[in-house]
What we know:
alpha/beta, 20% strand, globular
Amino acid sequence: MSKTFSLGGIHPHDNKISAAASIENFPLVDTAYISMSQHLGAPAEPVVAKGDIVKVGQLIAKSSGFISANIHSSVSGVVSSVELLPDLSGTMVQHVVIKVDGDVWMENIDRSEEIVGEIKLSGPEIIAKIAECGIVGLGGAAFPTNIKLSPPPGKKAEYLIINGAECEPYLTSDYRIMVESPEQILIGTKIMMRALNVKNAYFGVEDNKPKAIKLLKKIAGKNYPEIKIVPLTKRYPQGGEKQMIEAITGRQVPSMGLPIDVGVVVQNVGTALAVYEAVQKNKPLFDGIVTITGNCMTEQRNFRLRVGTTFDTMMYAIGGLPKDAVKLISGGPMMGKAVCRMDAASVKSTSALLLLTEAETKRGVESNCIRCAKCVDACPMGLEPYLLNRLSRADRIEDLEEHMVHDCIECGCCLYTCPSNIPLLDTIRLSKAQVIKIIRSRPKK
């Protein structure tokens, strides 16, 4: 029987209309715009300058802090500039701009299709290689993977969980990875198990992906019995770290806590593939699988896309924006970000581009709360969104902290269920940021 979490959740139509689209290699671009802020933490510091010749996979920026990540060129050519350019939200971020000339790769990258199963590196060597190759979490936050695989003193990982839920509607990039590269993902899981020094791993997959579950169970059962494939009930936000940990292990992450506090580390399937490629193939993270989808599209696509490809270039490659598309979202409809600059470029964590019509984006007119408590029933964190919204609008910061606004995971379940069309998530998100800033500013005990 499929497992799930205990509180809240919703059941939006999954709209996995691109699930049958095999992964294609996206055409080489003329110019790559590579951001120095592709990860959680401090931006990377460029180590190249205008006029430098670079190859695919060459280091172009070094991590600049404890939480930061190396960045490598996704193309070969000449650096035309190092300058501030807008990201998808319009924020000015430093970029390395490379004029593409051919497709010359670093010689030490193994480009063969041979699957390498033998893991030769030790745990510390694996973590060093992951850091060197700039691997980050590909489930959304882009947290540097080497840090996540290095629990702080006093903390010990007991289990590794691979997140294959892909619970966001429309997204299918993780699904395509699971059905096209299952062995590599499982080897990547084994690599991370060695880095963490754990003996058991769980691989959670929502049960609306039976082909992936069957394929992974077959390979894991034959070659990797220490990795258990766990079917999960289709339920949003099943892919949330805290929800997945509870569903699989029964453990609950405490308020303001992290998965490692209950002995668990969670990694995305895309991260597992990137770890395999880094450790077994010496390939840095400079590309990823991106779904381009929407009901207004005549053809759904899944691409292997190199970092630094602009959104307008992606649209051009699929024949341009459909006439009735009015909004472009990077990610899924629940937690993705609206793209306000078509000249902005993809980053390591770009997983999807979703095109929506006016009918699909139109919000209903806000009316008074009718005290139905649907938002309370839907909240997977056991919060009271209607109350947090009222406290937020009244700027009652202390009360917001008392009512645990900082535990909100910004999944949007409350907004989705509200019959009064109250923008609950919008107000709660702003207050949450204020409260967390205050909490972090306090002296540590």
